[in-house]
Amino acid sequence: MDSSPYLDRYRQIGALDQQKNQLIEELLQRVTDLENSFQREKLDHERETRFNRDIQLHEMELMQQISQIKNIMDREPFVVVLLDGEGIIFKDEFLQLGEEGGRNAATQFYTAMHTYLLQNLPSVNVPKIILKLYLNVKGFTETCVRSGILADPLTVHEFIRGFNETMSYSEIIDIGSGKNRAYDKIQEMFQVFLYNCHCHQVFVGCASNTEYAQFLEDTLNDGDLTGRVSLVEGVAFDKELDAVKGSFRTAKFPEVLRSSKVAPIYVAPWKSSLPSRSLLTPSPSQQLQNPPPLSRTSTNTSASGLGAQPLAPTPNTNNEVPDFQVVRSKGSGSSPVKAVERNKYGQRVDRLDFKSIPRDDLNRLKKLKLCNYYFLLGECPNEENCYHDHDRKLTRQELHILSAIARMTPCRFGLECDDPECIYGHRCPQSEPGKKTCFRGDSCRFEPVAHGIDTNIVKVTKI
């Protein structure tokens, strides 16, 4: 019997067993690979689960921190108001009341600003209002005096004191004289507050000049910042700001701030057009003829002391003057020769001994708010709108004291003044010859050169 078929069949079955074993090995390897892959996936899943849990916990912590920071940021919100005293001027009625006017101005400005914020920035919840007004106090005082708004230069200092004492976050800062000093300070403070998270709005009250226009134009380049900046308009903006002011909110407070600059009164514009002094204030003995020229430096002021209050203007309806009243007049006929007395250095010398004037009488007369123009020069260039007294009857002694009070206000021409009728001071009345200072020190309103003047008269300049 041939065995070949059996051998073939055996070989076929052996091949099948080999294939079966190979299949089993492949299956086992596959299972091993899947188990390893499963374990890796399981580990990855567990790792991701832990990571996600950690992330969630960290996120919760971050959210809590953000909430805390947000609460801190919202805890003390404020807005800052940076004002240039050249463009922001309080109305006359506040300035004239001195310390009381300063308190009223601070209160009313705060109230007006608070109302503006409620209407235009309701998202800011009752913020504090930080107000900083930068002002050349000396220059502003002289302007107010020369314009006839104030009679006493010290009234401005009283106003500032009352203003600064009223609100904890409001202050008027004396920056001294110098070009663009207010602008420089406002620009620096603007950068400080603009990026402060507690500051919700920066208000800028500026004067109309090219520096502010360029400054505001640069601010517009950052679109995210324009919503944080607003303008305060007091004195009307001029053409310099026309191009940029429309891109900002503009707040106006006409009930507190002037809309026009304070214009000093100079002699030239009105001197030739005024009626003669005889029509304004007749002398008890004679009618006045052509008015002598008024001082270039004279202003409607009486340099007064503390606590003086302005009087409302009262027209003088009675032209009769009692015998004891003294009114400076110019006699009829030829004009007398006028002269300016000077020392050996050519410096003007005022003949006036302040030590001989009783202090009580001096202080009493300061508080009367008398018109220097009217009583010392015989006429007032602003009589219809003058805030100072024209009706009081003065004795010769009182007129002498009033002339001393007027000398307490520095003449802007100083020692070089050649106006024989100038009623204001050319040397510090408190200084003594040879001493380059007085008891007021740096706070004296007279320049250092006006101290220690030689009072020996050696030369007379006739006018």
Automatic annotation (TrEMBL):
All residue ranges annotated as the C3H1-type domain in the record: 365-393, 427-454
What ranges does the record give for the region Disordered, renumbered to this chain?
278-341
Report C3H1-type zinc finger ranges. Answer: 365-393, 427-454
The UniProt keyword set, sorted, is: Metal-binding, Zinc, Zinc-finger
The record's listing under PROSITE patterns reads: ZF_C3H1
Keyword Transcription regulation in record: no
Q: Does the keyword Magnesium apply?
A: no
Composition bias of kind Low complexity appears in: 278-289
State any single GO MF term: zinc ion binding
PANTHER family, alphabetically? CCCH ZINC FINGER DNA BINDING PROTEIN (AFU_ORTHOLOGUE AFUA_5G12760)
Q: What's the protein called, per UniProt?
A: C3H1-type domain-containing protein
